[in-house]
Design brief:
single chain; globular; alpha/beta; about 250 residues; 5-stranded parallel sheet
Length: about 250
């Protein structure tokens, strides 16, 4: 199995042509037929604009539509896809880059580059899923001591860090916090070879995030969680799951 270690960001980007929109609408029509979900995830992240900057077609569309720049061209692209999906009774969800150049009317935002995008979207009364890298990226290392850890993409997200997360930022009013739907963990597999390694990266961090989203921030107790986690690992073992055992050695710093 080849591991993609170039970060997954490439210069290629869709040409904003009518042929492209027809192709994407055909693909999405098939997706709609297969899945009943009200939300369709369209991505929208990590889209370098260099090819659009050099494209006569892209520049002509920017001029024709009265757009300011390539970021607004991306917004134009997203809005067209949203309009199509809305016509089929669905709404779009995308990464926080879809905020750049103006947010499509009914879009739900997934805030991964920190919480700023989620806060911005919630203040605009758009639904938000919080998934910032610092707390919710489970392809990051679980400990600062990487000597005995499997190769990971980088960063560090410990179980304690995950457990400390509050998906409802204090920058939002009570009314604005209602637009925070919850949080999501992400496990990108460029550096992960097997299902067993996925389990290792996920557990017990996913257990910690589950309690984050199912409990009120005020009632969480890290010491109590650690005690319960020791018992929960017996269930992992009964199910034959591969989990990070070093997480049980973490103690609250004094």
């Amino acid at each position: 199995m080849k591991l993609e270690k170039d970060g997954g960001v490439f210069p290629e980007i869709y040409a904003p042509s009518e042929e492209t929109f027809k192709f994407l609408e055909d693909v999405l029509t098939e997706v709609i037929a297969l899945f009943p979900s009200k939300l369709i995830h369209i991505g929208g992240d990590e889209a370098p604009k260099k090819q659009w900057e050099a494209s006569k077609l892209a520049q002509d569309i920017i001029k024709r539509e009265g757009l300011k720049d390539e970021h607004e061209l991306q917004s134009y692209f997203i809005r067209r896809i949203e309009k199509f999906l809305n016509s089929k009774g669905r709404n779009i969800i995308g990464w926080d880059e879809i905020l750049e150049g103006g947010l499509a009317p009914n879009a739900t935002v997934m805030s991964w580059r920190g919480e700023k995008g989620g806060i911005q979207a919630a203040k605009m009364h758009h639904n938000v899923v919080m998934t910032p890298t610092r707390f919710c990226y489970f392809d990051f290392y679980q400990t600062k001591d990487r000597t005995n850890e499997p190769l990971a993409i980088g960063g560090n997200t410990s179980v304690e860090q995950v457990y400390s997360y509050n998906p409802s930022p204090k920058e939002l009013t009570k009314e604005e916090q209602k637009y925070i739907l919850g949080a999501q963990a992400n496990v990108w597999t460029e550096y992960i070879k097997t299902p067993e390694q996925v389990e290792y990266m996920v557990l017990p961090r996913l257990t910690a995030l589950s309690e984050v989203v199912w409990s009120s921030y005020e009632t969480k107790d890290w010491n109590d969680f650690q005690t319960r986690l020791i018992h929960l690992t017996k269930r992992y073992e009964a199910l034959g799951l591969n989990y990070a055992k070093h997480s049980l050695e973490i103690k609250t710093e004094k």
